[in-house]
Design goal:
- By secondary structure, the protein is α/β, with parallel strands linked by helices.
- The protein has two domains: about 110 residues, ATPase, nucleotide binding domain (Nucleotidyltransferase, domain 5); about 35 residues.
- It has a five-stranded mixed β-sheet.
- The longest helix is centred in the C-terminal third of the chain and has 30 residues.
Length: about 160
């Protein structure tokens, strides 16, 4: 993982649930902040990204998301103008609690805090990078080996179960 190349046109905080995704767009100076709720469907995310790209055709976007979010990271990694910052949920919790002592939280406000975290502290966060081709191949080979071992174990157990 490496540091984010700047400048970013927009800092994005994403908080998801099963049915919806709350995304806050923040300008670099923090003056502009818009929170939207989008259905948790990739085609809706795609339409939203396309609209943002029309508004900011040359800018980079810094997207911050709580892990685990493998599907979200995989989806947004297709865009070469988006730097993805995966964070540990405890990072967001500590950041939010520093300012919201009541402990109150909801998805829209969490997306705002995630966006603020990446806007203010992007230089301390790490940008996600995809695994190398070799690492992906090794992962597939390891998964294939596990499947073969599991199949062999099942066959062995069946044979042992049929022996008088």
């Amino acid at each position: 993982m490496t540091q984010c190349p700047l400048p970013n046109a927009l800092f994005l905080g994403l908080d998801r649930s099963d049915l919806k995704t709350d995304i806050t767009s923040r300008s670099a100076d923090g003056a502009e902040s818009v929170t939207e709720s989008i259905p948790a469907k990739p085609r809706k995310w795609l339409a939203w990204i396309q609209q943002l790209r029309q508004r900011y055709p040359e800018g980079r976007f810094a997207l911050c998301v709580e892990m685990p979010a493998a599907n979200i990271v995989a989806f947004f990694s297709q865009f070469d103008f988006i730097d993805i910052f995966p964070i540990n949920p405890s990072t967001l919790s500590s950041f939010r609690e520093a300012f919201v002592t009541s402990g109150a939280k909801d998805d829209p406000s969490d997306s705002w805090w995630i966006g603020e975290l990446v806007r203010v502290h992007h230089d301390k966060l790490t940008v996600w990078e995809p695994d190398s081709t070799e690492s992906r191949l090794l992962s597939r080979l390891v998964e294939d080996r596990r499947a073969v071992v599991a199949h062999s174990t099942r066959l062995s157990n069946q044979l042992k179960g049929n022996t008088p």
